[in-house]
Design brief:
- The protein is α/β, with parallel strands linked by helices and 278 residues long.
- Helix content is 48%, strand content 20%.
- It has 11 helices and 9 strands.
- Strand 2 and strand 3 form a beta hairpin.
- It binds ligand C2E and calcium ion (CA) (3 copies).
- The site of one calcium ion has 3 residues, from strand 6.
- This is EAL domain-containing protein.
Length: 278
């Protein structure tokens, strides 16, 4: 449960006192970082294999810390989740994405944007209300948004989360289950959540073209998802052999360094203007 996870979290953190001090001070700084514009949103294109072009991008946060340099989301997102900074951070990302979509709309066929939503937030009424207010104020159609539900923190109240996701679906937002295969309760989520899409975690995808067991797991996950009426995205595609394996396996979309690294907005605009071959 949540309390136990928190215990594990802090025990691990405490193995290194320096680390814990650094983390505590980082969290104190995160609020200021938002205000100071140190939190940036990068975008990684996702390629549709059927259409042979990117049809969406994933928003990924980066923290440009004035003294520590670049701090990656793998370090500060779990901390933000533990310390209740994840709601303001996510709202900041959503606002940024709505602004940025306006910048790339009209440059070519519409590109949807996927936003990572910590599963924990879905059962927070204040967060969901704030999201709805942002969407109401924005001229961007909700059909251009995908919410990727991430599981790094436990879902505190699954019933509330399901209700929130149903509401997002009603509003026109697509729902994707992130990091499929890595969580403890992925099959439960698959059964309960109103999903449009499933993202197979990079740890399964990366070597699927070389490793027989990974290949079997990826292929059967794609078939399972399709049987459930879901689209499948494979993340962490780093080379052409992997892409061809996924194409043969019937995967719908791919994301990874082979297509593009996560890009700042200006580089994304250039990327959009340059056709990719797949
Ligand atoms: P994720 O949602 O699984 O995102 C994919 C991660 O894999 C990103 O790491 C991306 O840069 C990386 N990646 C993409 N393609 C490749 C590849 O071909 N090879 C390899 N080795 N890596 C690849 P990143 O940007 O460091 O983000 C890490 C995690 O932080 C994300 O994992 C996501 O769970 C979380 N995160 C990022 N932004 C947000 C956010 O705004 N909100 C929340 N709640 N979580 C976020
Ligand atoms: Ca994601
Ligand atoms: Ca992942
Ligand atoms: Ca993730």
């Amino acid at each position: 449960d949540a309390a136990q996870r928190e215990g594990v979290f802090w025990r691990r953190a405490a193995t290194n006192l320096d680390q814990i001090e650094r983390q505590v001070s980082l969290m104190g700084e995160l609020d200021d970082a938002l205000a100071a514009g140190q939190i940036e949103v990068f975008y990684q294109p996702k390629l549709s294999l059927a259409q042979g072009r990117p049809t969406s991008v994933e928003a990924l946060v980066r923290w440009r810390h004035p003294e520590r340099g670049f701090v990656g989301p793998d370090l500060f997102i779990p901390l933000a989740e533990q310390t209740d900074r994840i709601a303001p951070l996510t709202l900041y990302v959503v606002e940024r994405v709505l602004t940025d979509i306006a910048n790339w709309r009209g440059l070519g066929p519409d590109l949807a944007a996927a936003i990572n939503i910590s599963a924990k937030l879905l059962s927070a009424p204040a967060f969901n209300a704030a999201i709805e207010r942002l969407l109401e104020r924005s001229a961007i159609p909700t059909s251009l948004l995908i919410f990727e539900v991430t599981e790094s923190a436990a879902m505190s109240d699954p019933d509330k989360a399901v209700a929130a996701l149903r509401r997002y679906r009603e509003l026109g937002i697509a729902v994707s289950m992130d990091d499929y295969g890595t969580g403890q309760s992925t099959l439960t989520y698959l059964r309960q959540l109103p999903l449009n899409e499933l993202k197979i975690d990079r740890s399964f995808v990366q070597f699927a073209h070389q490793n027989r067991n990974d290949a079997v797991l990826v292929r059967s996950t794609i078939d399972l998802a399709h049987d459930l009426g879901l689209k499948v995205v494979a993340e962490g595609v780093e080379d052409a052999e992997c892409l061809e394996f996924l194409r043969a396996a019937g995967c719908d979309m791919i994301q990874g360094y082979h297509i593009s690294r996560p890009l700042p907005l200006d580089a994304l605009l250039t990327f959009i203007a340059t056709p990719v071959a797949a």
